[in-house]
Amino acid sequence: QQCEARFGGALALSDSKAEIELCQFNQNESHEKGGAMYVSGYDPGTNYGFELDNCSFTECRSLKGGALYTNKILMSYVYDTTFTDNHALESGGAVVNFDALRLGFVDCILDGNTTLLSGGGVTTISGQTLFDSCTLRNNNARHGGAIHSQQPGQ
Question: Does the global pTM surpass 0.85?
Answer without folding.
Answer: yes
